[in-house]
Write a structure and sequence with these properties.
mainly alpha, 85 residues, single chain
Amino acid sequence: MTAPTLDTSTRGIAEHLLETLHLLDRADNQRLAVQVGGAYGDVREALIKVLAEAGWGRGMADEAIHLAMVSHISMLEAMTAARAG
């Protein structure tokens, strides 16, 4: 059996990290989501770094991630909305 092809583009990785944030936010073990310096913060920081590779500053990345999390939209949709202001 052949393994599924994964999207390893910057956009694909950003979407994957966003989905991981959603999973951590809903985790049975909520310490994963709320513990200072925990997994949620680490994944969020990784997503900020990935967005930086796409030319996004930290403030814009924070805004787009927040929008994606609260609106349950894709990272691309959130980045487009954040750019539009």
